């Protein structure tokens, strides 16, 4: 099993939930983690926590929708470590509402963060991986990137885009550049993501779901990422569909 000690990872959406849990997990495995998000106060707290347990973290103030901010963050991390071995495209939004409410601003924000954000970070990091002839890109899709749920229509569209992009990217960069691509497709995870739901009926529906089952924790996703990253180089876990046991 390849040792991750001394490797570098860029993790977007590291200020909470799945991203923060993965930053902690990779840092424990000896990876220097570039922790990227907009809420730098959260990143400061995470960095302190990681360093207290002997890990290394570099704060990257980054809005994944802003190409200049992404490129500056990537340059800062590469200047500090010389390389980026792992990219975790994880930043995302889920402000759900029915289509006939026409919350078009929310639709646009989801497309911007969930799709364009992934393209922006990938295009900034990939040249470094191609030059190094190695790398591992993880993209957070969702169960909503495998099937469609009413009330989650635009969110599902963005996550289906990530599933498609991940598969195509894997085919294009695997053989040619020795870069692995893993698409993570979680079911319900207990994070702040649900707090952004603006439609009270859908929010209540999600709260009911939470009462019905034990949600996954961010750490459950982090563990699978660590597992995939530590697989031998000839093994690419192309898709990881990870669900709460009680979720159908
Ligand atoms: P959180 O709300 O806890 O985390 C979302 C993260 O995205 C935050 O760190 C936030 O940071 C970041 N983010 C949002 N907008 C931007 C932006 N413009 N630029 C940079 N960072 C941004 O939710 P989760 O941890 O649950 O979500 C992580 C990913 O997992 C998302 O892609 C989500 O769609 C996906 N997912 C979640 C599931 C769940 O049930 N929770 C299930 C399946 C997939 P900040 O605001 O500081 O910028």
TrEMBL record:
Domain Ketoreductase span(s) in chain numbering: 7-193
Q: Tell me where on the tree of life, at the top rank, the source sits.
A: Bacteria
Q: Which residues cross the membrane?
A: none
Alphabetized SMART domains for the sequence? PKS_KR
Keywords, in A-Z order: Oxidoreductase
| Gene3D superfamilies to which the protein is assigned, alphabetical | NAD(P)-binding Rossmann-like Domain
Say which family it is in.
Belongs to the short-chain dehydrogenases/reductases (SDR) family.
Name of the protein in its database record = Oxidoreductase
* Taxonomy of the source species: Bacteria, Pseudomonadati, Pseudomonadota, Alphaproteobacteria, Rhodospirillales
